[in-house]
Each structure stands twice: as structure tokens, then as C-alpha cells.
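Entry 12.
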Amino acid sequence: MKILKILYICWVVFWIFVWILLFLIGHNPDGLKSFLIVIAWIILPLLIFVFYHWLRTKKRKFFYISILLLLYYPISFIAYSIYYFGVQGFFIKILSIIYSII
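Predicted 3D structure (C-alpha cells):
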């Protein structure tokens, strides 16, 4: 288990480094798509591990952990949008999405 934790930490550090490196070389100036891909690559092994334990043991603890891990996506998207668009631009973008749905 200790080896898996070390591998997971290396996995996270590697993908964060790749995401920063992509911006430095100018691969994707928008960055949102690459950001979401990197977030998915970071959390995917941990999410698979938690779902596996939840299906194997049927304990509610693992179900709650998986739900909390899935909350990481909207929180990271909000943080990225506020950083990229600014606070006012973020709320304008959210309102435009809501109005386009309605």
C-alpha cells in the first residue's frame, strides 16, 4: 500500500508538471480543456480505487469518499474559472450559461 501511495503522489506531481509545461510552451492558449484532462488524470486512479473498495466491501464510508472525490471536479472548475476569467467574468460566464439553457 505504501508503494501505491508513492506512485500516486508521483502521478499527481507528473501531471501537474505536464499541465504547467503545456502553458509554458504555448500548446493550448485556452487551457480549459487541458486543465480538465489533467484533473481527470490526477483523480482517476484514486476514484477507481475507491469505487473498487466500495463495490467489494459495500461500506458506506467508501461511497461517501467517492462522492466527495467527485465534488473535486466542480470545485476545481470554479477555481480555474475565477483565476482565468476573474471574479466578474466568472459570474458573467455562469449567467450566460444559465440563460442559454433557459
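Annotation: The mean pLDDT is 73. Residues 1-100 form one domain.
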